[in-house]
Amino acid sequence: MDGHSVEVQGRTTEEAIGKALDQLGVTRDEVEIEVLTEGRAGVFGVGSHEALVRVTVATDDFDEDEEIDAGDAATDSADAELARETLERMLDLLDFANLVTVRTTQRERGLTTIALDVAGEDMGLLIGRHGETLASLQFLLNTCLSRQLSRSTRILVDIEHYRDRREQSLRGIAVRAAERARRERRPVTLQPMPPSERRVIHLALQSSTWVTTESTGEGSERRVVISPKPTAAPRRANYGYSRGSRG
């Protein structure tokens, strides 16, 4: 969600930025960073304080009336076709009958995003548990093409609209967990999730007046904890969830 921001503390500025990126589920080149307070170690713990940063997901500054240079458009199209062909060959080597299509090619703030869709038989094996295999496939494709593409480019891979379905499922999980946290007056801890899925949970409940969310844990065990606010009343409430919102 463009424009979404968080303020995060850490022992150092870099630690605070890392926590913010993890919470938002984005990379450093997708955000704007404002250092509100520099961290300071102090002497023997005296006079020390944590760094505070505000990290905002970059908004799309593209002017719809702005003409795209024909050469740039041709380059983007060639890069998209290279990504499509490479993914198709990778899947052929894995003996998956498939059809790879280019869904969209977008450019904003110097970053080109190529979205690919995959359709075929036995695609569940390529998706994996909670999309783990799909994420690995996407990472491998980006790594293979990182030096072949002409500009800063990110490739997104989806299989039979799994990501859209998973996002809807995660929003439902967020709302049910928030209702439980409000009703039972205690924090609810979700299963470990990758950064992109934790971001969906955070955004689904960001406008809630009844619960807060935070990520805890390290590495693959990092998960979202949904906690009732002190003012939360034991009744059904609006959790800030919107079916039309995007994470």
Written description of the protein model:
By secondary structure, the chain is an alpha+beta fold. The protein folds into three domains: 53 residues, 2-Layer Sandwich (Defensin A-like); 91 residues, K homology (KH) domain (GMP Synthetase, Chain A, domain 3); 65 residues, Ribosomal Protein S8, Chain: A, domain 1. The protein is built from six helices and nine strands, in the order E-H-E-E-H-E-E-H-H-E-H-E-H-E-E. The strands form three sheets. The protein has a three-stranded antiparallel beta sheet with strand order 1-3-2, with helices on one face. A three-stranded mixed beta sheet has the order 4-5-6. Strand 4 and strand 5 form a beta hairpin. Helix 5 packs across helix 6. It starts with a strand and ends in a 19-residue tail after the last strand.
In one word, what is the shape? globular
Number of strands: 9
The CATH topology annotation of the largest domain reads as GMP Synthetase, Chain A, domain 3
Q: In CATH terms, what is the architecture of the largest domain?
A: 2-Layer Sandwich
Main sheet record:
3 strands, antiparallel
Structural class: alpha+beta
Q: List the domain count as a whole number.
A: 3
